[in-house]
Amino acid sequence: MADQGKLTLYSYWRSSCAHRIRIVLNFKGLEYEYKAVNLLKGEQFDPKFEEINPMKYVPALLDGDTLIADSFAIALYLEDKYPEKPLLPQDLKKKALNLQIASTVCSGIQPLQNLAVVNYIEEKLGSEEKNAWAINQMSKGFAAVEKLLKGCAGKYATG
């Protein structure tokens, strides 16, 4: 296994994006320090955290002097640095499909449930309309993922 430096994960227990990285770290058997950033209390807006992630969201991973923010970027970084227990298939076609699905989730489904988006939509449309809007938009993303996975079978989504 590649030498593991000290990993520090800036996370929040309710964040699905941060949860992805905890899954990756645990799957790969990597030790890390957990630093809680309470999003409900607005700790992501603290100037000290802004130095860690100028986008002011979790997760962020500090690996020695390397700082990575964004769950997709962190997962790919960990996959490349610690390849011994791979997350992605070696088959190029299956790997591309996995990355396409992950990108669809990261860009077309998950952002629609972020607190900032949900609060903004509720402010503009009201509570009932917010839910209808979110369900409609996320359903489009899930329908796309279903089409991408059509014909795939196995222990995992792509085999």
UniProtKB/TrEMBL annotation:
This one is known as glutathione transferase
Reactions accelerated catalytically: RX + glutathione = an S-substituted glutathione + a halide anion + H(+)
Q: Which InterPro entries match?
A: Glutathione-S-Trfase_C-like, Glutathione-S-Trfase_C_sf, Glutathione_S-Trfase, Glutathione_S-Trfase_N, GST_Zeta, GST_Zeta_N, Thioredoxin-like_sf
**Enzyme class, broadest EC rank:** transferase
UniProt lists the family membership as follows: Belongs to the GST superfamily. Zeta family.
List GO terms (cellular component aspect). cytoplasm
Keywords, ordered alphabetically: Transferase
Pfam families this protein is in? GST_N (PF02798)
In this protein, which residues make up the domain named GST N-terminal? 5-86
Gene Ontology BP annotations: glutathione metabolic process; L-phenylalanine catabolic process
**Species, as recorded:** Carex duriuscula subsp. rigescens
Question: Which EC number(s) does UniProt give?
Answer: 2.5.1.18
- The superkingdom of the source organism is Eukaryota
